[in-house]
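Colleagues,

Please find the record for the two-part complex below.
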Amino acid sequence: MARFEAVVAGVSSGGLEALKILLPALPAEFPAPLIVVYHQGPRRDNFIVEYLDTLTGMEVREAEEKEAVRPGVVYLAPPNYHLLVEEDRTLTLSTEKRVCFARPSIDVLFETAADAYGPGLVGLVLTGANHDGSSGLRRIKEKGGLALVQNPLTAEMGRMPQAALEAVEVDLILELEEAGPFLVGLFRDQAWAGRLSEKD
Amino acid sequence: MTQEHDPVRDVENIEVSLLLEAIHGKYGYDFRQYSRAHIKRRLRHRLLCSKMENMAAMMHRLLVDQEFFDTLLLDLSINVTEMFRDPWFYEAVRKEVVPLLRTYPFSRIWHAGCSSGEEVYSMAILLKEADLWDRIQIYATDLNEVVLKKAKEGIYPIEAIRGWTRNYQKSGGRESFADYYTAHYESAIIDLTLRNKVVFADHNLVTDQTFGEMHLIVCRNVLIYFSRQLQNRAIDLFKNSLVPGGFLCLGSKESLRFTNHEGEFEVVSDEAKIYRKKMNRTGIPGRASARKGPDGQV
């Protein structure tokens, strides 16, 4: 069985610009789900989701409660709700209190996804001005997953990736432009490896 | 190397299941079909604070220590809300629900899962402003008595007021929100006359039964923690507690879609998640349509 099954990403300040660079690099046939927490204030419309959907071959949608996670889809946490992944790979929303002043919180997504996917999870912390995501990324690492962080020196806001770097022994520090191609390559190589081992 | 990943055999998961059985067996609260990811987060939080070794130790503690269980119960319920949360919802209630409530001589409103009461008082304010004050009774229920007590007291942190005022105005409120509370040091105390129309009671959507002949039921951001099966139970309970043509309001990310009862309600506002129980086929409000017995008698 392929090792990696899902990707979770957290972005805060500067997030929209970052997603505008990350998402177009991912093709429609991207073989895993990408579950994203992007810190934004409570809002009523669905503009961000609709806008991001135009930028990538993957389907971008707002995560719905009880929805089963599918490959090739980008799930965005709705504003003012935490997004959790269940061990049966369905999604849960929650209104419990803010974590690190944030709802949705990156830590909540990362920690629950780490429980659900174990070593099959890739976690990515991008630009932001707080330290949300650090303890979540640590949990991903503890469960044997892959921990990726955007280079804080070149990130629009370096504090969040920097905090993650200090909290976790990350596997790779990436430029924002490299993140998408890296993920595509990771899953492509894994697919090839799978095919080769089938032939043995 | 990558470690074995098997959630079913995970020791912590097994402990969590046993702990939930223990709560149910000893205290009757049934969290077994709540979102497991959510429950686990809350339990881990308590574990960390209480400095116990593991979930098994916590299970033993809650079995022998009622006070500890009370703390845990507070952890497991969601007690975070705000006044006029999702202002567009209240705007839609003013527009779509109030005119129909006016057609009744008297309306009963049930707020299920009322938590610390912020949304109950919001509804009370809205109905007061709609001049329905003398014709309503609000029932506010929650499974947690500690939370209910808080709701009854109506005392909230003063920092919250600014956001709530903004929510109130966005919801179409035309009065001065400051008239509805008194600031006292770090606290805002809600106008106690708002409580005159509210009865607070203990009710558990998972284990308790129907509740009166309601004209409006509000249950927001409670069902998201339930399994599909529990959701169906709760909605069945709501349906049976509503008069024909009565309203059901859910949280903005909840819906009747994918539940067993979708066909028994019509959508009043998809965005505000307001539904209306369909009338009987005869169109006459009241009893379900009469059916003929085996002897041809009605």
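The two ends of chain B are 73 Å apart (CA to CA).

Comments are welcome before we finalize the supplementary table.
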